Amino acid sequence: MISKSPIHDSKLLSSILNNFRVYRNRKLPRPEIFSLDKTYIGQPIRNDLRRRKIRYRIPNKKNAINPEYLPTLKKYRWVVERTFAWINSIKAAKTCWEFKENNYLATLKIVFTLIRMSMALE
C-alpha cells in the first residue's frame, strides 16, 4: 500500500488487511500472524486484529503499564529488520523520488528480485 507522506502507517493497516490477497490452492487465506512495529501498538489496532482472528507480535513500549507477554518476539523480529535493511541497501528504493505509484512499485519489484537472486546464488 502506497500513500501520501502525512498519513500515518498505523491508519493504513485496516485497508491493507481488507485488500490482502494471496491465493494458495484456489483458497484465499488470511494472514496467520503479523510481526509489527511499535507504531502499531494502539488498542484499536489490536482489537481489529483480534476481531479478524489474526495473531500479532507487537513489541511493548518501555514505559508500558500493562505490557503483553510475547515469548517469541525476539526470535522473529530480525526478519522484519533484515527485510528493511535489504531494501535500504539499494539506494533507488531507500530514497525514491518517484511521483507515480507504478514507477515506485516497479522499483520495489526490481529490488526484491535482486534480493531473491542474491539469496539463490549463496
TrEMBL record:
Residues 7-108 form the Transposase IS4-like domain. PANTHER family: BLR1914 PROTEIN, PHP DOMAIN PROTEIN. GO terms for biological process: DNA transposition. GO terms for molecular function: DNA binding; transposase activity. This is Transposase, IS4 family. InterPro entries: Transposase_11. It comes from Leptospira inadai serovar Lyme str. 10. Pfam families: DDE_Tnp_1.
